Amino acid sequence: MSLLISSRFIFLIFVLMGVTFPFAREYQISRHGEDTILDMATEYLQLFKHCTIMVFSKEKVSPMSFTKPILGPVVLLEYSNRNLGKLLAKKFSLQRRRNPVKHCWATFAVLPEKSELILHYMPFVMKKTCFIEARLSVQYFIWVTSTTLDVLTFESNILELGLREVIILKFSVFFYESPLLRMYYYNMYHLKNPPVGVELSEQWYEISCLPFECLYQLDTVSNNVSKLNKYFWYNPRTLYVLDHVDFTHLGYQKLASVTTKNTFLAYLIFQDVLINGLKKSKTLHYISPIKRIRYYTSRWFNFLYYDVKSYSFVSCYGIRSSFDLGSALTGPFDVSSWTILATSFIIVVIIFTSLRRNVISDGFFLVVGISLESSVLTLQTVYETTFRRKKHYLVGSYAIIAVWIVLMGTILTNWYKTWFTMEMIIPTKYKSPWDSVINNEGITVLMTFSLLDDNYYEVQPKIDFFRYRSFYFEILLRCLEIASQDVEYKRLVHNRKTAKALADMLLYHLGYNANLIPIMKGRALSNTRNSANAPQLNKSALQNIPIRPVEYDEGDSYKITKTLKTCQKVALMDEKQNIAKITAFLNDNEENVVFVSGDGDSFFTTIVGWEVAPAKDSYVEIRLKVFISSGIWTHWENLYDLWRPEKLLFHYVNWTNPRVEMVSKLNFSSKIVTAFYVCGLCLIVCFVVLLGELLRYRFESGCANGIYKLVVSNIRDS
Questions:
Q1: Membrane-spanning regions, if any (predicted)?
Q2: Looking at the 3D structure of the chain, how many domains does it have?
Q3: What is the pLDDT of residues 411-452, one digit of tens each?
Q4: Maximum CA extent, the chain
Q5: Could you tell me if 355 and 387 are in contact, meaning their C-beta atoms sit under 8 angstroms apart?
Q6: Which residue range(s) make up the domain with 85?
Q7: I want to staple 14 with a disulfide (CB 3.0 to 4.6 A). Which of 100, 118, 142, 539 is the partner?
Q8: Within a domain: residue 310?
Q9: Quick one: DSSP state of residue 408?
Q10: What distances in angstroms separate CA 70 from CA 75, 196, 210, 408, 439, one per listed residue?
Q11: Is the pTM of this model over 0.90?
Q12: CA–CA separation, 558 vs 549, rounded Å?
């Protein structure tokens, strides 16, 4: 069975404490060396037989020192082995073994007081590179020592424990002849004076058990303690809201009006455990806002998927209509249908032409007249055949005419007129010449300051220099990610080239090298640590950057609408759902300027979600998964957007519905004009046909009169 790494990291410290007097402990240790102590602790080693066991000591311990067999792999190491923790985690976590329980790590530190480890300085001990990293999953750290560990040492550096769960085993238990194993479990979520509503707990839990039941009892205590983590999550705005919002009437709506979406979600998660008395307690965990997953995101954090954040654009540059006269006439049928109709038309014309005894155009005018619903059947001479004496040929001719009348003259014609009328009713569709605006040369892209930074309004100071710097720095990070992708797809290769060029441009203005190390001062956006005396921003130096930050505000101070209406090579980029609303607003103008939104721009498309630090029985992770899978968060998110809609471009002009009537926008480029063109075309065709028939009649009459006069003159002469 594959070795699985679970969501917790257990740091198990077995402290073998001596008798009351220090000289007695030193005497016992001198009598029992490191080899002997490990042999005496074999029963405790057996508790972790399903783990990868690592034994650290000042001097290397001989495998022959164990008189009893130990199941499971055991690695004997020394404290002097540096940078060994990462190597062990990579190598041994891939080994395949059949384990009855989940895989874990067990690290034994033998007599650390005899080594260079300083036990009373816990941060140094916890960060020792020879040990497995603190954020790794299930791991037991067994500390064999005679030194009394001060509990305050853990409390003052409780954040250094990470996911570790501390257990102490007294040294004196080795000298008791008892079948019970005894250890003390440290509760990192203990509160000395818990407020009303918080469960009481002990700081140390004593576990006395037989060897075969110790693991079960240890897991039971661990599970009970881990459930207390719900009181130790941190979100400063959540506790602030608790004191400043009255929830007696329309509480959630009031909450939405004064908080961001991230804070609103945090309150929903913690509303069952928000207690005023916990404000001064230590914070061990933190819930992150909704943000995108980055390529350098730590692998020790769990990422909960929320959505794919996609962007689009709107512009009036170079738009073209997908509608013209030809498409209006041929639109009701596809190419195959028109091909079949033309073939049928030619065949029928040929049949009638071969049966006619007069001019060959009679069959053509007959088929055209029926197809155009003209009354051409009143003249019997039109469809007389040369086989008049044989009436069974005439029946066949009648059958063809009848089928053509029903199918072409009635059903198909009315069907065509219906679809043609529907096409006239449907508004004209326009198409943008761009599939992606970022990849176009010479274009100017307008983007709001907060578009790529979800946490913008919570942390960003209202100073132009820092706003511009943060905006372009976020774009730089995304460009570096795209430029580092190893792709072969044509579109992605194009994106990579664009990102590389844009990243080089931003690195210059920000004063960084390729490794994001400041190397140059005096640039337009060079780094500065003095927020009180921020340098004056030189916006003219940033003109060569194709992306320009803007903001939706009162009076449109950034002249977004005016810039877009010039219909030059400029586009506004925003989230895809926002662009649809902005496009409707921009098209509501009296100048008849048509704006078109793109189908989407994949350059900045990213996955967003929550980064959650792994913790056993993580309260936030469990609640978030329930919220997402059950649709609870979707419900609250829709309510939040209803109570506090996003302030887009049209918000500050109080626009909600189109104000310009659609009739006033009709002009000679409107779709309905095509109907008049078709009507005129049909009149012209009718006039030409009429003229042809008149000319034919005169020609036939002239020929008949000439022949008649010639015959008469010949008779007279004879």
A1: 6-24, 300-323, 335-352, 395-416, 672-692
A2: 3
A3: 777 787 787 777 777 667 788 888 888 888 889 999 998 888
A4: 166
A5: yes
A6: 22-228
A7: 142
A8: no
A9: I
A10: 12, 48, 17, 93, 64
A11: no
A12: 9
